[in-house]
């Protein structure tokens, strides 16, 4: 899949002017707005809830909103985010008692459903629900905080996930989150990813458009070498 998507994580944005930040990053060429939702229970941090999603929709944001739930339990918050205007919702399989049911719950509300795998978590939970998956998200850092370094072994896991997806014949996207930047995005794409979450690499730069353009340039090289 060569239709690469760049999804800046608002975890690294300036929350005092969040609406303006999201508008700016979309004008700069981003495709998707990524939410890192943490509950200080599943992960040791507390971030944002559905009201922020709803506020951005009311602000006029029409781009897809990609909600990564680092929470347990999952179902009630998944429903709340769907009602608040989320487009994609993903969760960690170990955070749900019934993975198949939770995926169905998300899809029934008109959202794309995804499973998220931590760096040391195998992909086994995806094998029997591939028909209910719209995307798989691989964490390339341990979840909980922004600004961490990419874990290199994720490239091996990306290749494994890409083989699973290709073998299924299903249009499942492969997303990666954590430590993604201009220096490694080409290698990540060549390993099989097509959707790239980047937080500090974009929001920490003085010129969002310049960074996103540099990422696109690297992705074009990846596509040309495929």
Layout of strands and helices, then pairs:
Blueprint: E1 5-8, H1 18-27, E2 33-38, H2 50-59, E3 65-70, H3 75-84, E4 88-91, H4 99-108, E5 112-117, E6 135-139, H5 154-168, E7 173-177, H6 185-190, E8 195-198, H7 200-203, H8 208-225
Parallel strand pairs: 1-8, 2-3, 3-4, 4-5, 5-6, 6-7, 7-8
What do you see in this structure?
The protein is globular and about 45 Å long. Strands 1-8-7-6-5-4-3-2 form an 8-stranded parallel beta sheet. It starts with a strand and ends with a helix. Helix content is 37%, strand content 18%. The model has no long low-confidence stretch (mean pLDDT 96). Helix 2 packs parallel to helix 3 (75-84). Strand 2 (33-38), helix 2 (50-59) and strand 3 (65-70) form a beta-alpha-beta unit. By secondary structure, the protein is an alpha/beta fold.
Could you provide a short overview of the structure?
The chain is 37% helix and 18% strand.
| CATH architecture classification | Alpha-Beta Barrel
Overall geometry: globular
What proportion of the residues is helical, as a percent range?
A: 25-40%
Give the number of DSSP strands.
8
Tell me about the largest β-sheet: 8 strands, parallel
Q: Number of helical runs?
A: 8
Q: What's the helix-strand series?
A: EHEHEHEHEEHEHEHH
Strand content: 15-25%
For the biggest β-sheet, the strand order reads: 1-8-7-6-5-4-3-2
CATH C-level label: Alpha Beta
Evaluate the radius of gyration.
16 Å
Number of discrete domains? 1
In CATH terms, the superfamily is Aldolase class I
The CATH topology label is: TIM Barrel
Distance between the termini: 10 Å
């Amino acid at each position: 899949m060569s239709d690469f998507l760049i999804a800046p994580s608002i975890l690294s944005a300036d929350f005092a002017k969040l609406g303006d930040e999201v508008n700016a990053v979309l004008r700069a060429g981003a495709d998707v707005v990524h939410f890192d939702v943490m509950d200080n229970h599943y992960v040791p941090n507390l971030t944002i809830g559905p009201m922020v999603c709803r506020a951005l929709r009311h602000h006029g944001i029409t781009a897809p909103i990609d909600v990564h739930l680092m929470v347990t339990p999952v179902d009630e918050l998944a429903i709340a985010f769907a009602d608040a205007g989320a487009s994609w919702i993903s969760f960690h399989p170990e955070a749900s008692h019934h993975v198949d049911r939770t995926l169905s719950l998300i899809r029934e509300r008109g959202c794309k459903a995804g499973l998220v795998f931590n760096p040391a978590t195998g992909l086994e939970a995806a094998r029997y629900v591939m028909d209910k998956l719209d995307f798989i998200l691989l964490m390339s850092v341990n979840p909980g905080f922004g600004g961490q370094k990419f874990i290199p072994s994720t490239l091996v896991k990306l290749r494994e996930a890409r083989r699973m997806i290709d073998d299924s014949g299903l249009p499942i996207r492969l997303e990666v989150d954590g430590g993604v930047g201009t220096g490694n995005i080409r290698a990540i794409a060549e390993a099989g990813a097509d959707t790239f979450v980047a937080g500090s690499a974009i929001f920490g730069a003085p010129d969002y458009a310049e960074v996103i353009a540099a990422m696109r340039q690297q992705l074009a090289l990846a596509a040309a070498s495929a």
